[in-house]
Write a structure and sequence with these properties.
71% helix; mainly alpha; 192 residues; globular; single chain; Vanadium-containing Chloroperoxidase, domain 1
Length: 192
């Protein structure tokens, strides 16, 4: 005979956490496995997602104005790239603390569409670095806001769609990146 949890146990913090975790796994699997993955979309998305590993995409974008002779290029590059690098390191520390395994480590099937990072899953560094890059870059170049916002949204989506992260990892990364980006832009004067 199976024992059912009492209402107070099911509604307590542990019960709430268990329900949220179950919802997160179900929603993430629906996106990563249940949605169609046509090659014409998933292959370019995987390539784009891989460019943001370790912040490389953001470092390249931050260097473009400098490479094309923009004013205060080195300082502006350092402002954006330094913020992204700091976010990567901080997020990695949180990954070590939380230690959440990635979706394919829990459920190996189906096959991966992208190389699985060696780090843990929570929170998503792609999402946190993307938000910091968005906020620091648009502090310097406000007209870049719309295309960068679309890029961050696409990268965040890619991490769940390609089964590299759970949805909660990405949402937490977006919140963390927003907080860190606002902290940087609020405390450190942008080199205009």
């Amino acid at each position: 005979m199976t024992m059912l949890a009492s209402p107070t146990q099911a509604d307590g913090p542990d019960g709430l956490f268990a329900r949220l975790a179950a919802w997160d796994r179900t929603a993430s699997r629906r996106i990563a496995v249940g949605w169609p993955h046509p090659r014409w979309f998933s292959v370019p998305l995987a390539a784009l997602s891989s460019t943001a590993n370790y912040g490389v995409l953001w470092f390249v974008l931050a260097a473009l104005p400098w490479a094309f002779g923009g004013q205060r290029g080195p300082l502006r590059f350092a402002y954006i790239a330094g913020s992204v690098l700091g976010t990567e390191l901080f997020t990695f520390g949180l990954k070590v603390i939380f230690g959440r395994r990635r979706p394919p480590e829990r459920e190996p099937e189906p096959a991966q569409l992208i190389a699985l990072p060696r780090s843990r899953s929570f929170p998503s560094a792609h999402a946190s670095m993307g938000m910091v890059a968005l906020l620091t870059t648009t502090a310097l170049y406000p007209h870049w806001w719309a295309p960068l916002a679309v890029l961050v949204a696409l990268l965040a989506f890619s991490r769940v769609y390609l089964r590299v992260h759970y949805l909660a990892d990405v949402l937490a990364g977006l919140v963390l990146g927003t907080a860190l980006g606002l902290l940087v832009t609020g405390l450190v004067a942008a080199p205009r």
